[in-house]
Amino acid sequence: MTGGAGSRIRGLVRKEFLQVRRDASSFAIAFVLPAVLLFLFGFGVSLDAREVPVAVVVEDPTPEASDFVASLINSKYFVPRIMHARPPAERAMLAGEIDAIVVLRETFAGELNASDIRPAPIQAIVDGTNANRGRVLLGYLRGAWANWLAQRGLEDPALARATIDVEQRVWYNPAVDSRNFIVPGLVAIIMTLIGALLTALVVAREWERGTMEALFATPVRTSEILLGKLIPYFTLGMGGMALSVAMAVFVFEVPLRGSLLVLTAASAVFMVTALGMGLVISSVTRNQFVAAQTAILLTMLPAIMLSGFIFDIEAMPAWVQAVTYIVPARYFVAILQTLFLAGNIWPLIWPNLLALALFGTGLLLIAGRRTRKSLE
Amino acid sequence: MSEPVVALAGVGKRFRKSGRPALDDIAAEAEAGSITGLIGPDGAGKTTLLRLIAGLYKPSSGTLRVAGRNGAPEPGTLGYMPQQFGLYEDLSVAENLDLYADLQNLPRSQRRERMARLLSFTGLEPFTDRLAGNLSGGMKQKLGLACVLVHPPRVLLLDEPSVGVDPLSRRELWRMVRELSEQGMAVLWSTAYLDEAARCSRVWLLDEGRLLAQGPPDNFLAEVRGRCFRMPLGETGRRHVQALASAHRGVLDAQIQGRGLRLVLEKDTPPPDAKEVGAAGEAESVEPRFEDAVVARLRGQHASETEEASGHEDDWRKHADGDDTAIETRELTKRFGDFTAVDRVNFTVRRGEIFGLLGPNGAGKSTTFRMLCGLLPASGGEARVAGFDLAHARADARARIGYMSQAFSLYGGLSVRQNLNFFAGAYGLYGRGARQAIRRALKDFELEPYAGASAAGLPLGFKQRLSLACALMHGPAILFLDEPTSGVDPLTRREFWARINAMAERGVTVLVTSHVMDEAEYCDRLAIMYRGRVIASGPPDELKQTHLGRLDASLEDAFIRLIEAQEGPAAAEAPA
After folding, report:
1. Does A218 contact B103 at a Cβ distance shorter than 8 Å?
2. Region Disordered: start and end of each range (chain B) (predicted)?
3. Range of B267's domain?
4. pTM: predicted TM-score of the whole model, two decimal places
5. Which of A196, A373, B323, B512 could form a disulfide bond with A278, CB atoms 3.0-4.6 angstroms apart?
């Protein structure tokens, strides 16, 4: 019978490839969708603040004040607008035209040049509506101020003030470019959706068109039907994955520090998991429209929220942290971020890979069980 | 006698813990070399039974032996063609066959010869490279059969293979299946067409999950022999006579058949007096048809539920538009690019008439229909509906027509009352007018008990009633019916036509399209379309007389004769 199984699986796989060739939708899901999503999110989602409009209220235009404003203008982080009183600046803030106000009071120069050490003589008001961005901005402003003071000290040691010298080093992402951290996570999120969508749609289509019923009446086994779906869409999904990685490296210029071999192996394990999710979804819904909606809802949404891709898992309440363990994307996000930014760090990769393998096996077993009982 | 190939003993199937089982205590056998017809109303359990035999369901009780093995059949001994034929539409004919050859483990060495035989057997040789999705209904059905036959099974299960397939293709399928059974295959064939069942070696009649009767069709016929009559009808008031006769004591079934009324009576009951029901002459005994026997059986079973829809002489709007012509087409033509779908079609329908537009798939019926409903502009010629020229006053014409499509354009998630509400609004009824129309629809179509139930869950007959009620919401003068009863069981079909007849009695004009020739018997006059043209028209009896020279023949025979005369015997094989 093994020879028979081989011929049956071969027949199913060939059929699937023919269908992919004739009906562009699977091809679009595997290649066009990840490219589009990666472009949109990769360029759109950034945690860095750049060219932030800020108002600088200069109550007394002394040379010192002008010098500080010039340093802000030269920074790539800010687009300052010079004003001479607070009320117009506050109005601009209310209108949403600026995100922060820096106030240099008329006493600025005097206090700066006083011999005794006093509290920082500038005031920064930040739009805190978006708390995250507000915090980032405040940090930038502090940095800009400290830089300026240090600069002044270098140029004229007499003006140097005793400040604590903090030397920052950011490891693995020295440029502190959030894109380097987001894009690998994004690849994981997108491939979760693609994998699940590929199988969910094609299996639901077989149910809808009554071909599943006809297949069941032939000697073909459930495991062979599932393999007949897994093999072609695994190939397609891995193609989409390769495209995504290529885009990450060449379009977004994210460094890839781990080995390509490990990346391929981990992606393969993850792809089986994602395809397995699709198989389970379609065995339950058996309707293409519902299957597509469920795939988006069940894979992409939790993957974005709970995988640690943007939102730090460590910062979540304990019970939410517990929930994140059942989101397969979580493990793949961790693996990809490690491989891209740090390298082949096995202690970080192994446990995640193992978890993915367990998920994949479990999902395939469920899909097998559910499909067998199917017609009932 | 050898062991039967399929043997069922006390087989039952339950999907839910409570309520009636889908199948209950079925005991029956099918032998090698026989064709068994599975018949029964919608929801009787035909598909469930076939799936049980195919091993796709497990029985909840009883035992099932297929090809000498208990329980699920051994792989390869059984072929099953589900309702949708199980074809991959984006694969070609050859690729579909190849896939099933792989799945059935047909060795490569035998493949070429086997494929060639199947292709010639089904007449699909010229189409091997065509995508299955581009085949006509009849050719799809043949391809579905070929796929099942890749590995010749001992038991062949066919689930309603002829729904939506034109009469010529139905006949060819029958010829092929009989050939297979002669080679020793046991065939189980579920069908809504009783003329097909009548040709089977045995028939299983299912109703509400039980096996109501089984045996050779002749046994069924013997039961109603001497209980079937035909009464001649006059020129006018034929439907009125039918309504009176149906209501008569002891009459199980009264159907208009051309110029006569066919009656099936209860045992030992004399036929009604001709004068009493207004017939043109006394009833004379006729040979029973298989359909008579089945209807008599089912009527006995559902005696309490059967009610006729006539009765009410109510306030449906009387349509006196002065002019007696409801629909008229003159050289009506529709071209799509360089393809002429409808080619200079002429016909006239009088007010209160039931007019049928018949023909195989792709003949141009639907296109004509859409033009008359004002959904498609004509490329040439003229069409007047309810006195309005469709070229200038489409909206006026549309306000006068009701349209019931084949697909039941109801909102499944809405309740019966909500559906009626919606359609009332869509037709511009509001306030008191709308409330009255809805009340009347619920009453006339006896939908009151179901007013709060969701439309999707209604039994087929009730869905059909609701569709019709929605189409009639605004009291249209003309009713368009698109394939209203294809694949519907005989009782539901009778009930539906009783309502249509009552409607016509009140002066509503009815235009029906169909490829089911049975439906044509209900029409006053017909136009038969083929390849965009009307090739014959007239009353059903006249068509039978002119083209076959016999009145007792079926319209289907007349139809096939006509098309063969047009293009030679192979003509109807043209794809849709």
Report:
1. yes
2. 299-322
3. 223-302
4. 0.77
5. A196
